[in-house]
Amino acid sequence: MRLMIIAGGMRHPSGSRRAADFVQQKVLENQIFDRIDLLDLGQTPLPLWDEGVWRGDEKWKKILDPLRKRMQAADAYVLVAPEYNGMASPALKNFTLFFDERITGHKPALVIAVTSEAHNGQYPVADLHAFGAKNTKWIYIPDHLIYRNIGQLITENLQMTDTLLRERTLFSLRELALYARALEQVRQNHTFRPEFKYAP
Fold first, then answer.
1. Which residues contact 145 (CB under 8 A, 6 or more apart)?
2. Which CATH number fits the domain that encloses residue 13?
3. Residue 45: how many other CB atoms lie within 10 Å
4. Of 84, 186, 198, 200, which residue is least crowded by CB atoms under 10 Å?
5. What domain count does the chain have?
6. Do the domain assignments include residue 196?
């Protein structure tokens, strides 16, 4: 099983990348997934979506073809979503515009919200759950995580200072793997219907 972790911050380095590195370390240590692919949107930002995506412009093909292959190879996703002005980051929201159910459909996703503050962090979760899955058709698992005070929560050597949250992270990642295995059967038996692609 392959996991893809998307660090949705717009800076590099960032708290989102630190959270993504921590998740990657825990997955590897506990052998939750066989393979991991990590994409940092702060390090490799995507241009803003434009209609050239639909036209198949060469510029977009060069950018998107390799990325779509990576996304399609994944069985599950972790979306590390920093809070920007009470919502998920523009980079992460832009990222979701490039994929439809043929690539990401019927695969589970775990949202991990990140904030440098001691409060909030819930808004990226609500934002993505409300708007991020209509066309991607990935399936948010019932669990989510909020990493507050990210600078103090995860140290530079990727140690989490909150023991309970560390255990809950492992629990959520194992739950994500269970959903990934269970949804394999759905993907194998699902028929893509283009006329329903943008149905509300």
1. 110, 111, 112, 113, 165, 168, 169, 172
2. 3.40.50.360
3. 13
4. 200
5. 1
6. no
Which phi-psi region, left, alpha or beta, contains residue 121 (left: φ > 0; alpha: ψ -120 to 50)?
A: left
Q: Is residue 109 part of a domain?
A: yes
Q: Give the pLDDT confidence of 94-106 residue by residue, as tens digits.
A: 999 999 999 999 9
Percent of the chain with pLDDT over 90: 86
Bridge-partner residues for 38, per DSSP?
Answer: 5
User: What is the distance between the alpha carbons of residues 162 and 175, in angstroms, rounded to a whole number?
Assistant: 20
198 within some domain: no
CA 53 to chain centroid: 21
Q: What is the mean pLDDT of residues 72-98?
A: 95
Six-digit token string for 113: 């919200």
Of 89, 27, 98, 93, the C-alpha closest to 69 is 98
Enter the tokens of residue 86.
């009470």
Instruction: Please give the residue range of the domain that contains residue 89.
Output: 2-188
